Amino acid sequence: MGGTESIENKLKDAVKDLFLKKKVDIVIGFEKGSLPLTSRPCFIRSSDMAERLVWNASCTNNLAVYLPRFFQKVPRAKKSGTPPPVVGIVAKGCDARSVVGLIKEKQILKENVVIIGMSCQGVIDRRKIESFIDGSFIAGGRQEPGGILEITTGVGDKKKIKVSDVLAESCIECQYPHVENADVRIDGESITASDDGYKAIKAFEEKSPEERWQYFTDEISRCIRCYACRQACPNCYCKVCFAEQTLPRWIGPGDELSDVMIYHIGRIFHQAGRCVECNACVRACPVGIDLRLFTRKLCMDVKELFGYIPGLSIEELPPLLRFELNDNNDFITTG
Amino acid sequence: MEEKKENNEPKIVAFLCNWCSYAGADLAGVSRFQYPANIRVIRIPCSGRINPLFIVKALQEGADGVLVSGCHPGDCHYISGNLAARRKFALLKNFLSYLGIEQDRVQFSWVSASEGNIFASLIKKVVDNIKKLPANKKLVRKRVGVQEYGWY
After folding, report:
1. Residue B152 pLDDT > 80, yes or no?
2. Average pLDDT score over residue span B32-48
3. Is A181 in the same domain as A213?
4. Neighbouring-strand partners of residue A204
5. Which of B56, B95, B151 is nearest residue A249 as measured by Cβ atoms?
6. Where are the alpha helices (DSSP H) in chain A?
């Protein structure tokens, strides 16, 4: 993990180079956040600004979520004839798969996106760090070479935590850490791909329906309907979401539990065959709902029933857009 | 007290495709095949018209069960509507039962226009299955009030 700083410098050089060669108009990357151990998205518009870029284990967001807005067809823009910009994106393995998904769904133009493929060493989960420091908050912290986080807690203690101990769950179970379709590649160490075979999902399936429903109810009843899960997700680019649609009005605006459940069932179901398990929804959730457990069930089913893994190839049609005559028919009730 | 008695006569929303299952239901009626009167039929143009939210919404509005029936695979009036729908249904059925909603609550079937007797036996089977379950309480809206929701 010693290489984050050299990777950061390589990234800055690569971005500067892209601007000097006029290959991009804008680059989406990370800069230092205002809280310790955070990074926030930043939009680099010139080679001078590239110095702001950082790369470390706190670069958590899925930046692909910012891409579709550059390519939206505003009627006026169409008339004025301004061509869409060429956008560079600093991408981890999961972000790059989101980009592929967006290209496939025609939300962005393939030739107008430059993927800067990072070697990803996994990102940290702040909730895990907070549990490590006994409920105190992170008052200060920085990443040292060798994959160590030096953390100052709210009560003034200093602690050293290994990055590998506080990796996000999705990174521990990450199956595709490498960016396959990078236009510019920043090499370095990366985490190894692992395949846990959806162990957590299968364990949850073992429980009785009542237990499962109870868990689902408990989790969802904490939801405050901020829709952060939707906003953080690169797949959720609809201009009018079913949650806010008024004709028909699928769900009411209040705190009625069944409405909240339908919002979540609907949102998660819309991820079928599209979710790349980047964990953006879980990270964005202010109350820490275990959305992963539910979303991954659909990922697992899509893989098992249709043999499809999202975000790997641009040409392959998504599973719900195609069909076979001999698809699984076992669930059908016969008269 | 209510909970035990309630499910003697479950209400089942049946989405029937216009070209096969609806005609099959019609044939069952014309041929005077008896089947339980628990289903409330909604005619849809094709099983491919079903948005998974229809099914979830029916459960929220108090249906004890939902049945979706279309043409047999390969016989769709629109060539492939039911094939595209089948993938959605497979995922939805798995997902709802994963969340803890009973498997039999939501059922899918294929009935052709000539299968009046099969339609009658299908409804008997579905109603029997759903009668075994407790009344739907899980996804049902607790607060009722049209004005509060502006639901139309």
Report:
1. no
2. 96
3. no
4. none
5. B151
6. 4-20, 75-80, 93-104, 126-132, 169-172, 199-206, 209-220, 228-232, 257-269, 280-284, 291-306
The count of structural domains within chain A is 2
Count CB pairs under 8 A between chains A and B: 133
pTM, whole model, 2 decimals? 0.93
Beta bridge partners of A160: A150
Query: What integer pLDDT is reported at residue B147 of this predicted model?
Result: 46
What is the pLDDT at residue B1? 40
Answer yes or no: do B152 and A325 touch at CB < 8 A.
no
Residues A177 and A258 in one domain: no
Judged by a CB distance cut-off of 8 A, whether residue B111 touches chain A is yes
Contact A265 B90 (CB under 8 A): no
Residue A140 lies in a domain: no
> The domain containing residue A34 runs over which residues?
4-75+82-124+171-185
pLDDT at B134 over 60: yes
Give SS3 for A184: strand
Q: Does some domain include residue A307?
A: yes
Residue B85's CATH number: 3.40.50
Complex ipTM more than 0.90, yes or no:
yes
Please indicate whether, in this complex, the C-beta atoms of B99 and A320 are within 8 angstroms of each other.
no
Of A144, A163, A185, at which residue does a domain stop? A185
In A247-286, the residues whose Cβ lies within 8 Å of chain B are: 248-250, 252, 254, 256-259, 261-262, 265-266, 268-269, 272
Residues of chain A scoring pLDDT < 70 = 1-3, 75-80
Q: Quick one: A179 and A251 in the same domain?
A: no
**B51 CB contacts (<8 Å, ≥6 apart)?**
none
Torsion sign, CA atoms A238, A242, A246, A248: positive
Q: pLDDT value at position A1?
A: 43
Whether residue A134 lies inside any domain: the answer is no
Q: Is residue A130 part of a domain?
A: no
